[in-house]
Specification:
Layout: E1 20-23, E2 26-29, H1 60-74, E3 79-83, H2 89-92, H3 94-102, E4 107-111, H4 114-127, E5 133-136, E6 148-152, E7 163-169, H5 180-189, E8 190-198, H6 203-211, E9 216-219, E10 232-235, H7 240-254, E11 258-262, H8 266-277, E12 283-286, H9 293-301, E13 307-310, E14 323-328, H10 337-344, E15 358-362, H11 367-380
Parallel strand pairs: 3-8, 3-9, 4-6, 4-7, 5-6, 7-8, 10-15, 11-13, 11-14, 12-13, 14-15
Antiparallel strand pairs: 1-2
Helix pairs in contact: 1-3, 10-11
């Protein structure tokens, strides 16, 4: 019998004996027992010069951050990047990825949600056209090895002690945030150093870096140097919120603009969509239970829909040019400061469409709404 007090799960690093069990005389970990499947095999990275192909050159502020990240990697220091939505966080790490690949090292880029992996895949293919980029997420695990591996945090169990450079974006997003299991899997996958990124990093992550004297790099401005859209608060009660949505969708449609409408729950998402659809065609909705959500998002990007109802499944990581945002029932308790900031960050992300509207539509104004607006105004003060 193994001493549970001294046992450490080799897969997820769990040390808590409450989650250990025995089967056929062998100890197993209940935290990660459901993570079953093929694990990564050997894959040699060709150590040849690699340089990312950028659509736009880095801004001076971005270049300073990118150089610091590279220096930290070269001295084997991990880095936290605190950068506003739309600042070009992904582009900040292209330089360090290039250096790692040029040295024949294994590179991973992890995010909590599969939709973001799907959205990132063509961007990385375009940035590194001469490298093998693979995407790994639930239902898409046929190829596990490549020069650059984009993956969801759930898939990290396949890569124990594998990555010389592991980048984790959206560290405060569900389901990664507050998941001891996923956090352990992340650290278990790192062989070298890592980079964490977020526009709204949790206090516990900031404290982790500070307590270990690891660098925290801040970028308060977007790469196109336009201010972040400051949300407008609109107070409407009951069905007056629906009437307001109808009015705004019609206005945006006349101006040839699309709008994303965020609802706090799946039920409200579908309910609001069906009400709007009585008056306005050319709309759609997506949430975590929609089997066709990837196709619906693609069609929305192709301007086949004027409006899209969604839950927090699209609150981050997805870029849609010139989109407007309305947060329906913005006073719901699930809309905390960080979530509101992330959703507002969907607007004005493109250099050729740097402006737009964000509207908090609610029964009342909450402290979270006030704090989110103040935080956005604070970042804009750096311009």
């Amino acid at each position: 019998m193994i001493n549970e007090a001294k046992f450490i799960c080799p897969r997820c690093g769990n040390k808590d004996s409450r989650y250990f069990g025995y089967r056929n005389g062998h100890v197993y970990c209940r935290l990660c027992v459901t993570f079953q499947g093929k694990e990564v095999g050997d894959y040699a990275i060709e150590d040849r010069h690699t340089e990312a192909s950028l659509t736009y050159p880095l801004s001076p502020a971005q270049k300073v951050i990118a150089d610091q990240i590279l220096h930290n990697y070269e001295v084997n220091k991990s880095t936290l990047i605190h950068a506003v939505c739309g600042s070009g966080k992904t582009e900040l790490v292209y330089q360090v990825i290039s250096a790692s690949l040029s040295a024949g090292k294994h590179v991973g880029f992890a995010v909590p949600r599969r939709e973001v992996v799907i959205d990132l895949y063509p961007r990385f293919k375009g940035a590194f056209p001469d490298r093998n980029v693979v995407a790994v997420y639930g239902g898409h695990t046929e190829s596990l090895t490549g020069d650059i591996i984009l993956l969801t945090t759930h898939q990290l169990y396949r890569y124990r002690q594998y990555f010389d450079l592991l980048i984790l974006d959206e560290i405060d997003a569900f389901p990664f945030k507050d998941s001891t299991l996923l956090i352990n899997l992340f650290h278990q996958a790192v062989k070298g150093s890592f980079v964490m990124m977020s526009a709204t990093p949790p206090d516990e992550v900031v404290n982790y870096f500070r307590s270990r004297n690891l660098p925290i790099l801040a970028l308060h401005t977007r790469y196109h140097q336009h201010p972040l859209p400051v949300p407008l608060v609109k107070i409407r009660v009951g069905y007056f919120k629906i009437f307001y949505l109808i009015k705004m969708i019609k206005r945006y449609t006349r101006d040839h603009k699309q709008v994303m409408i965020f609802a706090p729950t799946i039920d409200e998402c579908e309910e609001v969509y069906h009400l709007l659809h009585l008056f306005l065609r050319h709309g759609a909705y997506v949430h975590s239970r929609c089997e066709r959500r990837v196709d619906i998002i693609r069609r929305f990007k192709n301007h086949e829909f004027n409006y899209l109802l969604t839950t927090s499944v699209l609150e981050r990581g997805v870029t849609i040019k010139d989109v407007q945002v309305i947060i329906y029932h913005a006073d719901h308790n699930m809309y905390q400061k960080g979530v509101l900031i992330q959703i507002a960050g969907r607007v004005g992300r493109k250099i050729d469409a740097p402006t737009g509207e964000v509207i908090f539509l609610a029964n009342k104004k909450t402290s979270a709404m006030t704090e989110a607006i103040k935080a956005i105004q604070y970042d804009n003060s750096f311009l």
